[in-house]
Amino acid sequence: MAQIRRLVVDVLKPHEPPVLAFTQQVGDAESIAGINATLLELDKEVQNVKLTIEGEAIDYDAIEALIEDAGGTIHSVDQVVCGEYIVENAPTPQD
Amino acid sequence: MAQIRRLVVDVLKPHEPPVLAFTQQVGDAESIAGINATLLELDKEVQNVKLTIEGEAIDYDAIEALIEDAGGTIHSVDQVVCGEYIVENAPTPQD
Amino acid sequence: MAQIRRLVVDVLKPHEPPVLAFTQQVGDAESIAGINATLLELDKEVQNVKLTIEGEAIDYDAIEALIEDAGGTIHSVDQVVCGEYIVENAPTPQD
Amino acid sequence: MAQIRRLVVDVLKPHEPPVLAFTQQVGDAESIAGINATLLELDKEVQNVKLTIEGEAIDYDAIEALIEDAGGTIHSVDQVVCGEYIVENAPTPQD
Amino acid sequence: MAQIRRLVVDVLKPHEPPVLAFTQQVGDAESIAGINATLLELDKEVQNVKLTIEGEAIDYDAIEALIEDAGGTIHSVDQVVCGEYIVENAPTPQD
Amino acid sequence: MAQIRRLVVDVLKPHEPPVLAFTQQVGDAESIAGINATLLELDKEVQNVKLTIEGEAIDYDAIEALIEDAGGTIHSVDQVVCGEYIVENAPTPQD
Amino acid sequence: MAQIRRLVVDVLKPHEPPVLAFTQQVGDAESIAGINATLLELDKEVQNVKLTIEGEAIDYDAIEALIEDAGGTIHSVDQVVCGEYIVENAPTPQD
Fold first, then answer.
1. Domain B4-82, what fold?
2. Contact A47, A14 (CB under 8 A)
3. Which Gene3D superfamilies match (chains A, B, C, D, E, F, G) (predicted)?
4. How many Å apart are CA C80 and CA F20, to the nearest integer?
């Protein structure tokens, strides 16, 4: 199976734990080399956070479990990169 | 025949298998060095995903078969790059 | 005569052969190091494809012949670069 | 626990101490390699400053304490990066 | 105290001395490695100039004194960077 | 006299010779290292082409003669760069 | 006195001498390493040209004299960079 190099997921989470602790908890997944959590929106009840995760062989199930343990839900998987190196999304006129 | 170095295709797929499993299945094609799957749109029935695929000699038929085996359809081929290296689309005033 | 290093042409073609086969056929020209075919528009009858071609000494006549053999027509030549290296179009306030 | 490499926080502060002294006070945190303070807005009572902080293992609690000692409040945590290197937020069509 | 690496200030000044002489006078501060003065606006009475100043350990008080000696006033401090290297303002969706 | 390193000219030309032959003819000037011809507009009678020419010591008179021999007219000289290296147009708020 | 590394000036000039000769005349200043002249606007009487000048120790008075000898007038000094290296104008939210 092709290894996952990058994963971009859109996550909904309650205010607790805060983004910092949430990111550290997800970032503890063994298969992750680095994680970027960027706040998209917040309202009274939930925070919408975009996670960009990179690694040699990312374990999606472990990450999903950590996100859910921390109270979050994956709303959508917005980008998946597999293979020997990270291929970027090539810009096209259809974008 | 000139070897294919990059292929950008616009794919329509049902919600199952999800983008992650779908990308890994297509990424298993032997001729692929890397694959980027970026979610463009999703509605109740289908997901619209843009695949950017790179390799030394990409086997289009094998990729199309893997996409169809995974329940997807190639809606359009948006970019093809052949040759000794990856030539980028040169910006022109007509763009 | 100054050698052609890059050629950008706007091509109209019928749906058959598809963009992939079309690009490979044109990419077989001996004088080409690499070719990028980007889909601009498609309607029922024709596809509008932008070709960015690079090489050390591109043979325009051979490329035009291959395009026409594959059923396409060069609608316009949008950029030509000649010389010892690829000079980019310098941005100016008139753009 | 995954180490924090970058932290972006939105801070509200009174006019005193001014941005310069404020940044130097926060920048004195031992865990910080560098800090960028960019003024977003200012009105009669408060200044809104965006802090981008980088380091090998940023100590959030120490930084929050220094911000509060200097009279500021963290209004939101806008980005957190953990891991072996700084992963940038990958652009996606959902942005 | 964390050393200042970059300072961006918005300055109001009369027409005399002109921007050139003004920049050279401020640029003579010992703690400055380089200074960029960019004209933002000018009307009959005043010129609005943005100064980007870089150095290893910028002495703000000395710079403020030089600006005032040259007839200028610091209207706002728009960016301060401290630490071992220059950290750039990380782009976020809140920008 | 300072040597010309880059020259950007806006040229009007009839449809014949086409852009390709036109560029090769101008590109044959001995003083040119490379030339980029980008199509700006075309109507029934004329083509508007932007030429970006680079070299160590560009001979403007020779280039103007070649353009005119090929039926073209220099409508405007939009950029001239002289000196030891190519200085780019620095962006300013007045742009 | 801090040495001038870059100077951006907005110049008004009559149509004669043309931009090319004008740039070469100004570019002959001993203190200049390179000069970029970009046409901003032209009407019947005057041309508006932006000069970006780089060097180790630019002599403003000599350049102003050369501009005036060539019939031009400095309308405004839009950027001045002094110091050990060229500091770029740092982008800020106030831009």
1. Alpha-Beta Plaits (3.30.70)
2. yes
3. MTH889-like domain
4. 6
* Residue G19 near residue F60 (C-beta atoms within 8 A): no
Q: How far apart are CA E29 and CA E53, in angstroms?
A: 11
Inform me whether the pLDDT recorded for E1 exceeds 90: no
- Report residue B5 as tokens: 């170095």
Compare CB distances from B89 to C32, C42, C50 and report the shortest one's residue.
Answer: C50
D–G contact: 3+ Cβ pairs < 8 A: yes
List CB contacts (< 8 A) between G93 and chain D.
Answer: 38-40
**Which tens digits make up the pLDDT trace of E59-92?**
999 999 999 999 999 999 999 999 999 999 999 9
Query: By the 8 A CB rule, do E7 and E53 touch?
Result: yes
Q: Are B and A touching by the rule of 3+ CB pairs within 8 Å? A: yes
Confidence of residue B35 (pLDDT cuts 50, 70, 90): very high
pLDDT computed for residue E73 by the predictor: 98
- The answer to whether the beta carbons of residues F13 and F21 sit under 8 Å apart is no
Beta carbons of G60 and E20 less than 8 angstroms apart = yes
pLDDT digits (tens, 9 = 90+) for B51-94: 999 999 999 999 999 999 999 999 999 999 999 999 999 999 99
Burial bucket for residue G81 (CB in 10 Å: 0-12, 13-18, 19+): buried
pLDDT in tens, F48-57: 999 999 999 9
Mean pLDDT of B4-22: 97
Rounded (10°) angle between helices E19-27 and E60-69 = 150
